[in-house]
Design brief:
The complex is a heterodimer of chains A (about 180) and B (about 45). Chain A has one helix and 13 strands. Chain B is an alpha+beta fold and about 45 residues long. In chain B, a hairpin with a 5-residue loop joins strand 1 and strand 2. Classes of the chains: A mainly beta (about 180), B alpha+beta (about 45).
Chain lengths: ~180, ~45
């Protein structure tokens, strides 16, 4: 049970704290940094403990490019079966647009540009460790635009990690935080 | 230019630097993936 209703005068115990206060809706799993590389892979972060996950990313890219995701199994990326549709709105004009593709090697999450200080986004990752189809939603900004969209990986195989990369050659410097969505 | 990937183990924290071979890098950038032709150039910032 994830929620407890306390009554007036009730004593807050260590058990209450450990059970109800420490375990919020999002439970931190792992986080870190990556630099000096075009891509980074985080392994052993998806388990049966959680079904759905939230990934927060803050990065700087070295090129005008896209940031894509692949799911991985024991460090090896699945490189087929992705589809995505991501819309964007440019900050400095009324220009809207989108990127979309189906049955490709990776899924677009956000746009980046070396000329813009930061790319920041939140990506929900649905059911990576289950035997159901996997999904993504993304919302953030990079380059000079806001981006939002979703995608999927048509695979029923459990994946235990993810890989983020800049599509164009060059390195990214990223900080990431991964949370599990508490289920009970 | 050689591309690299950082392999991070979420349990141990160990980081291993891996050189991406051409095949892997090209797989992600294959021509049928419209990664940079559907928005760059038609967007006014």
């Amino acid at each position: 049970m994830a929620v407890k209703t306390f009554t007036s005068g009730e004593v807050l115990t260590a058990s209450d704290t450990n059970t109800y206060l420490n375990n919020g809706g999002l439970v931190y799993i792992t986080g870190g940094t990556s630099s000096g590389a075009n891509a980074f892979t985080v392994s052993n972060c998806f388990t049966s403990a959680y079904t759905n996950y939230q990934l927060v990313v803050d990065l700087t890219g070295s090129a005008t490019s896209e940031i894509h995701i692949q799911l991985t199994i024991s460090g090896t990326a699945t490189a087929a079966g992705y589809g995505y549709g991501v819309h964007y709105t440019a900050f400095a004009s009324l220009t809207d647009g989108y990127s979309n593709s189906g049955n490709v090697a990776s899924a677009l999450l956000m746009y980046c540009d070396a000329a813009v200080t930061r790319t920041q986004f939140v990506a929900e990752i649905y059911q990576p460790f289950t035997t159901n189809q996997k999904g993504f939603t993304t919302n953030g900004h990079g380059r000079q635009l806001a981006g939002y969209g979703s995608g999927r990986l048509a695979s029923n195989t459990a994946h235990d990690g993810f890989k983020l990369f800049q599509v164009a050659a060059g390195n990214i410097a990223a900080t990431y935080w991964l949370y599990g969505r508490r289920q009970a | 230019m050689t591309q690299y990937m950082n392999m991070i183990d979420a349990i141990t924290g160990e980081v291993t630097v891996v050189e991406l071979d051409d095949a892997e890098f090209e797989t992600r950038n294959r021509p049928d993936q419209p990664v940079e032709n559907t928005w760059i150039g038609d967007m006014k910032e």
